[in-house]
Amino acid sequence: MKDSSLSNTASDEVTASKITPPADCKMCSVIIELFQSRYDHYDINLGKVSERLADDCPHATWLRDVEYNTGPVPFYEKRELKVSHSQRDEVCTLSVHYYNRQGIVWASTPGFKLVSRPEIPGHIGSLRIVDENWIDLDVVRNWLLRCTREHEEKCNKTVGDVPPFKPRLLIDVIQGCVTECKEERPRFLTLSYTWGNSKNLRITKANVDEMKQPGILTSEFMATQLPRTILNAIKLTQALGERWLWVDSLCITQDDDESLQHQLAAMHRIYATSFITIIAADGQDAEYGLRGLRDISNPREIKRVVLPLARGERIAWTDYSYSEEGSMDFSYDGRMWTSQEYYFSRRRLIFKNGQVRWECNCSAYSEDHLDGTQGELGDSGLAVYVGRDRHSKVPSLYGLNHVVCNFNMRALRYEEDVYNAFSGYNTYLNSIFPSGLVYGHPQVFFDISLCWTSLRDIRRRKVSERYTGDPVHRGLPSWSWMGWKGLIRFPFDSESGVGGTPNAGFTNSITEWYAMEYPASCRKQRIKSLWSQCQNLPNEVEAGFWRCEEFNTPALTSGSTRTRMSSDAITIPKELPSHGYTPLFDESPRPEARWYHVPVRPADSEDDTPSGLHSGYQYLWCLTFRAILTATDEKFYPAGQIPYHLLKNKDGSTVGSLLPHNEHESESLQQGTQVELIAIAKGWSTVLGEVGTKKQVSRTPSAETPLTLEEEQVIREEKEEYWSEFSRKFSWMDRYNEGKKKRQDGYHVLWIEWENGVAYRKGYGFVLEEEWDRVAETSRVDITLG
Hints:
Layout lengths: L9 H8 L8 H10 L7 E6 H5 L4 H8 L14 E7 L4 E10 L2 E6 L4 E2 L22 H15 L18 E3 L4 E3 L8 E5 L15 H4 L8 H4 L4 H12 L4 E3 L1 H4 L5 H9 L1 H7 L2 E5 L23 E5 L5 E5 L18 H7 L3 E6 L2 E6 L2 E4 L8 E2 L6 E2 L5 E2 L5 H12 L9 H4 L1 H8 L6 E2 L2 E2 L3 H4 L3 E2 L4 E2 L23 E2 L2 E2 L14 E6 L4 E3 L8 E2 L4 H5 L10 E5 L28 E5 L35 E6 L1 E11 L7 E5 L5 E7 L2 H6 L4 E13 L23 H19 L4 H10 L2 E12 L2 E11 H7 L5 E5 L1
Parallel strand pairs: 8-9, 8-10, 10-13, 17-18
Antiparallel strand pairs: 1-2, 2-3, 3-4, 5-12, 6-7, 6-9, 11-12, 13-14, 14-15, 15-16, 19-20, 21-24, 22-23, 25-34, 26-27, 26-30, 28-29, 30-37, 31-32, 31-34, 32-33, 33-36, 34-35, 35-36
């Protein structure tokens, strides 16, 4: 129960401001001085939480009731409390850290800012208290004006240079109807929202002519048929002086399969082309509306907390409750469908937490900020496929990880729609990866991508009750991450990209893969996996889009001058490379360097991107080697992640490791369980070197049971020892040679089970080469993966 003095309502803000903090409060003074930038560093230790709870100051109640982003903090009062300041956006946060059964946890509060004091000239406060019910639309219009005048072409540039797209239908907000716009390149807005369970009239072949009648969308009848969010968006578009609006339910003929699939595949282009995307992030469905627009929508409710500090200062923040796992699934931020809509938009007008803010390619504005205090969005130097940083056109599993990890944590009401929800990303990524993607897996790195692993408990996706399609075409293959809900990642291959991880490498493919529409189909489409072929090309071969650079080993592991090909000694290929490659078109200080080059598609290739393998190709076929090994209930936890199980041979010797998808599969592996494994690729791993080298803590994949303080100390000492060793200055070659000893050659494998002649993925594993060659069947076996 939160103390009433820190309530969210405007009336309680006044009550809170009457509480007088002591003039010499240490915590208040540090926070104020952080905002004034009086420290050389921006991460200040405030002492134990228990000490700050004992202070005679309003912040004690705040600390007692505050909700951290990771949930309740075990042994909270014993933790060290820190306050951090970001100069970029003038935000401070409080944080504590601790360890759970999966590793270190950084828990932080919502960011807070210093409230402006107009009575003090030059006051550094950047926050103003806004009207609790209504948005000032003149402020929003000014953002739009500033962007178009000051940013010019920077904000007309689409994400990743996506080519423009003209939708067939648009809403004419002046005529109040749907129409086929005659303008060649109309300036239209888009709406990004969640449908939820609200009423949502959709355009169909039967009613499309009716929806084209002027005034239909503003009629009293339509007010009862359309959700508030759409009705509000139509009026907001007009209030901003714009004419055209695109809304999926009214601008895509929902029962025209050809048109539907065409626009789903172009969804990223629709949002990338739109002038502004209105993002309705509040509420669980489309009935919530865009609140706070006078004469358009219902009044808003701002969840604002204001806390007095010493010296008459105040801080304020938005107090939104961090949700339990799963409760965010059907909010805007938790939905799959909204992912590509958000990330491909170049200008966003965001309604969230009762307030409105603006984001474009250059700036971020918020209505509770004073003029001139808004943050400018800089380039972090990272190259990404979508988002605000420098856009990459280099095929990379590492880059794809950023897209897939974020996307696959989100929810779908109808899980069989996962392929369609990813279709915009898929079209865009097809323009980057040669031969495109197959169910989210790039053909060029296909074998490697099949060895994805789960970072937490993941579960199998299932078709909904509404699904009436072919049971063999459910669109949820077990071999693809699309068939599973949760946090997954592709391997970070040290043989491939500079700056990988020291844990695994892939050196040779061992089979060819084919995609099929049905099990036992005679029509098989070869998957063009090229990484192994590219890896074995000599350096002298023409690299096309790549610059070949000599790799020279530095003298030390730290403190040496970094070059474009700099790499840590333990993340380098197992055999010392002589050369590396960087893209010719990337002149940045941090180019995407690789140890071998791969084909790169031309920058303007999306318009003529081949359709590739469509969603019907959900079965794989190959001829590969198979072995039966014994899994044990002996577990170990490299890098603090979910548990690996040891694989043993008949003599009881450890010969490999197995990582199930989830806790249920892990618990099914009792001592002596026979598991069927198929070989995917040759390579190496350091994972077995972790066995027996560390003090083991009894961990579980769910991490729901807190560690004792003694168990935490064991993990903390491991981490401190690791980083102490990592940061020492010593010979680069010594470190490389030491790391090479831990790299054991073997086979990357999948654990499978059979059902009606089709194999299904149950997990990933690694088996030592010598043992695999001894126990695997001598002839290749016919494998169909579903």
